[in-house]
Specification:
single chain; 264 residues; alpha/beta; Rossmann fold; two-stranded parallel ribbon; 9 strands; 50% helix; globular
Length: 264
């Protein structure tokens, strides 16, 4: 029986992924900051719920070690993260630092904790949840963009060093997911930016939701089981549509086109 270790598993994509892999016969180690939110998962056979704050390096080491006492881990899904939106000048330094600490450094820290285990076994797979905002910049989401672009670039670099030991690494990049992600996101939009912000939201049709957590969990399962050395899985009808246009027009062409809608 294979095992997946998941961060941010209390709600949304993390929880849906835990349930899907469980239904496929996997052992699941579902981690989250508040384990009381995983009480329903903990009732299921072969799901273990552990406490984990990915901004706490000491706890990461402790939780990884605890997970490995339960047996070998085959896949690590770095899912923990949240959104931070708004113009740069409207965000505080602490908000910016916390976002990077969770979305970027959390992913890197958890990965580092499991590299020795995967090296010893000479097998294993890391998957990170990135975003449409890690493939193409979404206006008024600059810090969130940067955190997800960073993980996309870091993953590409890690592909080579992990490959020396037959270890894989991939990203799954969703668009908008109908989940608590939007509710948990932090927004700070000053008055002088509001009209342009609304135009940007309308341009991307962010008022609608295109994917459920279960739909994206299916892509995570595909990435975990297809045996391909594929770096990125673009997940969701909305992101596929926008990203196809981005690739067709090229970076500058797409930016120029979007600017005509956002900048008046």
């Amino acid at each position: 029986m294979k095992t997946i270790f998941i961060t941010g598993a209390s709600t949304g994509l993390g929880k849906a992924t835990a349930l899907l892999f469980h239904s496929k016969g996997w052992k699941v180690i579902a981690t989250m900051r508040d384990v009381t939110k995983g009480s329903d998962l903990a009732k299921l056979e072969n799901i273990t719920v552990l406490s984990l704050d990915v901004t706490d390096p000491a706890q990461i080491g402790e939780t990884a070690a605890k997970a490995l006492t339960l047996g070998a881990v085959d896949v690590v899904f770095n899912n923990a993260g949240y959104g931070l939106g708004g113009p740069l000048e409207n965000l505080t330094d602490s908000e910016i630092v916390q976002l990077f600490d969770t979305n970027m450094l959390g992913t890197i820290r958890v990965t580092k904790a499991f590299v020795p285990h995967f090296k010893e076994r000479r097998q294993g797979l890391f998957i990170a949840a990135t975003s449409m905002a890690g493939l193409m910049a979404v206006p008024f989401n600059t810090i969130y963009n940067a955190s997800k672009f960073a993980i996309e670039g870091w993953t590409e670099g890690m592909f080579y060093e992990l490959g020396l030991f037959n270890i894989g690494i991939k990203t799954v990049a969703p668009g908008i997911i109908k989940s608590h992600f939007g509710e948990n996101a932090i927004w700070a939009v000053g008055e002088e930016y509001k009209e342009a912000f609304d135009r940007s939201m309308a341009s991307f049709d962010f008022r609608s939701y295109f994917s459920t957590p279960e739909m994206i969990a299916d892509i995570v399962y595909e990435a975990a089981t297809d045996g391909k050395k594929q770096l990125r899985y673009v997940a969701g009808e909305d992101v596929n549509r926008h990203f196809a246009q981005y690739e067709e027009l090229g970076r500058q062409g797409y930016v120029d086109q979007l600017a005509t809608k956002v900048i008046k």
